[in-house]
Amino acid sequence: xxxxxxxxxxxxxxxxxxxxxxxxxxxxxxxxxxxxxxxxxxxxxxxxxxxxxxxxxxxxxxxxxxxxxxxxxxxxxxxxxxxxxxxxxxxxxxxxxxxxxxxxxxxxxxxxxxxxxxxxxxxxxxxxxxxxxxxxxxxxxxxxxxxxxxxxxxxxxxxxxxxxxxxxxxxxxxxxxxxxxxxxxxxxxxxxxxxxxxxxxxxxxxxxxxxxxxxxxxxxxxxxxxxxxxxxxxxxxxxxxxxxxxxxxxxxxxxxxxxxxxxxxxxxxxxxxxxxxxxxxxxxxxxxxxxxxxxxxxxxxxxxxxxxxxxxxxxxxxxxxxxxxxxxxxxxxxxxxxxxxxxxxxxxxxxxxxxxxxxxxxxxxxxxxxxxxxxxxxxxxxxxxxxxxxxxxxxxxxxxxxxxxxxxxxxxxxxxxxxxxxxxxxxxxxxxxxxxxxxxxxxxxxxxxxxxxxxxxxxxxxxxxxxxxxxxxxxxxxxxxxxxxxxxxxxxxxxx
Length: 496
Prior knowledge:
Blueprint: H1 9-17, H2 23-41, E1 44-47, H3 50-65, E2 77-81, H4 108-115, E3 119-124, H5 158-166, E4 171-176, H6 182-188, E5 191-194, E6 214-219, H7 222-232, E7 262-266, H8 276-287, E8 295-299, H9 307-322, H10 341-352, H11 355-367, H12 373-397, E9 400-404, H13 420-424, H14 431-436, E10 440-448, E11 451-459, H15 464-478, E12 490-491, E13 494-495
Parallel strand pairs: 2-3, 2-4, 7-8, 7-9
Antiparallel strand pairs: 1-3, 4-6, 5-6, 5-10, 9-11, 10-11, 12-13
């Protein structure tokens, strides 16, 4: 077995362009890696036929031999979270409700990746309709963390993060509504970015909470993340929330001097609830910023205490609205034995949705109902505005806000299943970026007990380039970039 699957996107792209390897060889390496570890990781909901992906790789190789101009990432194997529509390939949202759904169109980001001639290996597992923090809410199976398969990979983009961390693909796309790219990135030791709201088109993303959802990449290092963002960012008239921004060359920011940047460290994030060992690792990474000529100062952000309740009310209310379309009439699962439309709706939604999704739909119904709208939903919108204004105030004096990505490392499978509040609090540091619409990234900064720890960096809207500039320098200094689990995956307690 060759070890091409261990390459970063940048390394693989360079080797392909220099004709040191072929796309077929690269894809074969990934297929062999999938054969080796997928039984234990279970990151794919849908795995495409190996012969078909190899045929696509051979076509790209033939084009390269004939000197046909090819995009920079042509021939790189990747995966997509299973809430991104793919024409002719099932898109299930890891739900029984959509287990037979095959979209007639591609999401905007899928179109862009196809134009870039990347190779789709399959669709990644997730929490059902992106509602969860561990990928245990998938209707099909639980994905495992490649660093320790007794632990969760995070969620809801846990399948995407696990596939990248395990070397089964070179990069993947996920969606982030309250931390669903960054938290699994932290748990799996990879890089995950939630872009500024509106920078990446949501056309073809099956919605959870429309004012919070954003599509973002999961990669092994910061350079790879910048390269993927150069493909997927950009205005799309089919998405009414898409920002009319010109595309940027994010890789041009890498390696630029960062001396003089100012970093805010919210003391409100380093209090009760943060694991002591995680805090130690994060603070150690922050301490190294001074070696880069960066000024770090404590700040107070008192409105952060309202972020969690505001997020939960807004997200469940929007979920209630977005998921009303799944009624057993137009598409998706339809229950048998219904005598009338009321019975059809009831049986379909009771049988098609899992417990977590049903819980959030009911909460959203309550928050938007007569007599409670003003008391809950309207108040949450006011709190969201205060949080956004507080961030704007901080960003007037500082370039970045740095926090832990998650208060703990990846927890055991089944550990928090009976404690939904504690489960939800694993996103306590990430939800603020979604509420405010600002960009935020998680990069690996160290380990606790052999499990990865993530550092979150938030920046001003549409300043992804500066975030990459800062994080690339920090990543190089920390020395934990592009690490795959050194000893492979654990199988039944045995390391292989």
